[in-house]
Each structure stands twice: as structure tokens, then as C-alpha cells.
């Protein structure tokens, strides 16, 4: 899933750049006249930050737990079976058989860089979608206040309604561009998340039923599976909520 998201971002980098620029210009050039409009814009702007912190922390925790469990597992395998050698946390092309503990430790230290790469590659695309969608949702909410202000004002009614219609049309176009840019990635996210949650849940249930005694590695793997399930369900929930507000606002 991480490679798919990185590939989609690479292929659609020009479209994403234009969409970012257009939404940024729209949000910055918009005139927020009333106190309600300003508060609405500020409140919606804070939401992506909370999402980014929560999802980045949960995904980072899951990756660290996976890395630690694989390192511990590698040491245990080499300890009980010397002929097999050490197994690296992330499967990469090995030019030599790793049978020395110091060499294994150096390879593990090198593979620490994989943790931020996986976290940023997986979380970054979701954060982009949530950030852009919430900015568009905020403009829809502000537009509703502008409509109420124009309806209650007798001065320049026709001119005000014309401006509101043009703003609404522009928001609809931004929503369509947002949908066309992220529709495939959201489908891949939902399908992959469903499969991942099912596999992780099955592993959690079977590992507890088959083993009476749980080792340190198994405990770390169970914690990793539980945290990744929470992160995936949280991401799916935020995507669904963003889509719901885009449809109903």
C-alpha cells in the first residue's frame, strides 16, 4: 500500500501541485467578513493538524514495534539455530550471509531509515487528502454564512447573489478535481485496509489460541497488529467523514 501511494503521488504530482495552489489561493484570497466566518475557517484549519499528529504517531508506533519485534526475532533465530544466520527486519537483497552479531547490528542500524520512509510514504497521501478536503469543506461552511448574510441584507442583493453563485460553482469544480485526483487511491486504501484488518485480526485470534505461553516477540507482534488495526480504522473513519461532509455540506 505504501508503494502504491508513493507511485500515485509521483504520477499525479503535477495535478496535485495545481490543486494545492488553487485551494491555497482560494483560501487566502477569500474575504472573511463576519466573526462566524473567521471562527469557522480557524476551527476547520485546526482539524488537519490533529489528524496528522494522531495518524503519524500511531503509524510510527506500529512501525517501531514491527522493527523491534523483527530484530528480537532475528537474534532468537540465530541463537537457537546458528546455521540459519540472522534475519533482517526488512527483507532486502543480501550479498553475504549474516552470521556475525556485529554485522547484523550494523545492518539493523542501517534499516532504521526504513521506518520514516514507510511512515511518510503511507501517511503523507492520507494527510494530503484530509487537508485538502477539509479546506474545501471549510469554504462550503463559510459560503453558507455568506448566503445568510446576503439574504438578510437589502443592499446589493443581486450582486451579492451573483458572487455567491460564482463561488459555489468554483467550489463544485474544486470538489470534482479533488474527487478525480484521489478516487483511485481511496478505493485502494479502503480495500487494502479491509484486508489488512481481517488478516491482523485473524493473526491476533489464532496466535492466542495456539500458544499458551506468549514470548516477547509474539507480544510485540500482537501489539503491532493491534496498533496497525487502530491506525487503519482511524484513517478509514477520517476518509469516510471527509467524504460525508463533502457530500452533505
TrEMBL record:
Q: Does the keyword Plastid apply?
A: no
Taken from the record, one Pfam family name reads 7tm_6
The portions of this protein that span the membrane are: 47-68, 102-125
Keywords for this entry? Cell membrane, Membrane, Olfaction, Receptor, Sensory transduction, Transducer, Transmembrane, Transmembrane helix
Q: Name one GO biological process term.
A: signal transduction
- A cellular component annotation (GO) from this entry: plasma membrane
Membrane topology, as annotated = Multi-pass membrane protein
Task: From the Swiss-Prot or TrEMBL record, state where the protein is found.
Answer: Cell membrane
Tell me the domain of life.
Answer: Eukaryota
Which molecular-function annotations from GO does this UniProt entry contain? odorant binding; olfactory receptor activity
Q: Which InterPro entries match?
A: 7tm6_olfct_rcpt
Stored PANTHER family? ODORANT RECEPTOR, ODORANT RECEPTOR 19A-RELATED
Q: What is this protein called?
A: Uncharacterized protein
The species this protein was found in: Vespula germanica (German yellow jacket)
